[in-house]
Amino acid sequence: MLSLDHVSAGYGDVRAISDVTLHVEAGETVALLGANGAGKSTILRAISGLAKVASGSIRFEGSDLGAIAPSRRAFLGIAHVPEGRRVFRELTVTENLDLGATALKPQFSKAEQQDLVFSLFPRLRERRSQLAGTLSGGEQQMLAIGRALMMKPRLVLLDEPSLGLAPLVLKQIFQAVEKLREVGLTVVLSEQRIGEALSCCNRGVVIAQGKTIFSGSSAELLKDETINRAYFGSRQATEGAHS
Ligand code: ATP
To answer: Is CB count within 10 Å lower at the N or C end of the chain?
Structure first.
């Protein structure tokens, strides 16, 4: 469904990722793992068009994304939920969701997408008339994901959804990622919380200094002590997976 072949990308003269090759099948949930600044967000931004691709190619369902303007990529079915849950604070939950539906094709029903969002996040249904700025951090993250789902995407790029959230809320967010998989969406997730990410993803790809270092099934990655010690510290790697 999604193929990155030897992609180098960055910002101006800054090369943030080099020679990244990544293939994602339809229905897969793939975690991009790595430390701060490793290049995880840049991979997501290169796919949605927010980072400039200097070389290599990115294909989505057979289309060469290099030939498609970033603003058109949402219409292909690619939704990007950026780091830092940028919701419209002065608008209500429902109004935020409505804005997400602007990229929904006319043959699909907004009400159906909203029902899906509310079934994934019942808390948003309860707070549908509340201003987004008054929601908790976790609820804002749910809203940011929900808004992306309103366009009925086939691929969801989720950039560090756990950032700054309390442990109880984290659990809900990772459960939501699992639910996205259950409803058949393809997800690429950038995360520093290795254990939790691997417990809700099929596969992990370790990124360090802008390059892919290792790719394997979640089970393989959790078992691989060398990778665990070198890139995560083995305790952190396994903690979330068993909780
Ligand atoms: P984090 O978890 O902190 O978001 P990351 O793995 O997602 O880390 P990136 O945000 O992709 O990493 O950053 C990769 C490199 O690109 C870093 O060296 C970073 O400083 C640089 N970078 C990121 N955004 C920009 C930007 N807008 N302009 C210039 N350099 C940037």
So the answer is: C
